[in-house]
Amino acid sequence: MPRKTNRAIDPNGAKKQLGRTLTNKRVKARQDAFLVAYGQTGTVTSACKAAAMDRSSVYEWRTKDVQNFKIRFENANEIFREGLQDLALSRIKDQRPDGNPVLLITMLNACWPEKYRRDAYRADDGARELMGEWKKWKKDQERAKKTGKSTGSQETEAVQADYQELEERKNAIDEVEKILARRKDAGTENGSKGNDN
Asked: Percentage of the chain with pLDDT > 70?
């Protein structure tokens, strides 16, 4: 048995609800047109132009998350990025062996960062050679102590100077690695905040 209420049915209220539904459908249709264009162009300006709309609407939809626009926008952005990746891979496959390898290197950086990342560090051979000389000097010193022979003061001073230079290089390399780590951390923080294409 239906419940009785004291409220009267407002015929204008039903019209208002119908008006909101139509407005929501129009907004959704405009959003869909924009998102399809954005998935193809990758920029808000170009997508707005293609959908014949003002970019302020897009920023309002993103700010207020009108009809889950934020998630749908990220999906359109992913579609655009995958399209770029497909294009890059097809160009790499079609590239002549003597072509410019920049695109290939960039794709390797993106797809296999632990092996091909831009910030990978490789010590120069000079430091390795200097370390080898120091080890040789150290062995000579140990042999001299055992046999009771002196290795010569000039040679010892030269090796000690090389060792000091090696220590200074090592300290410099440590400082550079710290700076790079801070930059990488700062870049990761900036990248995680999102972008406003």
From this structure: 69
Please give the Cα distance from 97 to 137 (Å, whole number).
Answer: 47
- Rounded CA gap, 103 and 101, in Å? 6
Q: How many residues does the chain have?
A: 197
Per domain, the residue ranges of the chain are: 17-116, 125-192
Tokens linked to 172 = 């410099």
Q: What is the pLDDT of residues 160-193, one digit of tens each?
A: 777 777 788 777 787 778 888 887 777 666 555 5
Find out whether 84 and 42 touch, Cβ atoms under 8 Å.
yes
CA gyration radius, the chain: 33
CA atoms within 13 A on the CB side of 25: 6
Residue 66 C-beta-side C-alpha neighbours within 13 Å = 17
Q: What is the pLDDT of residues 14-36, one digit of tens each?
A: 455 555 666 888 999 999 999 99
Highest mean pLDDT among 42-51, 99-108, 126-135: 42-51
Residue 195 φ then ψ, to 5°: -125, 160
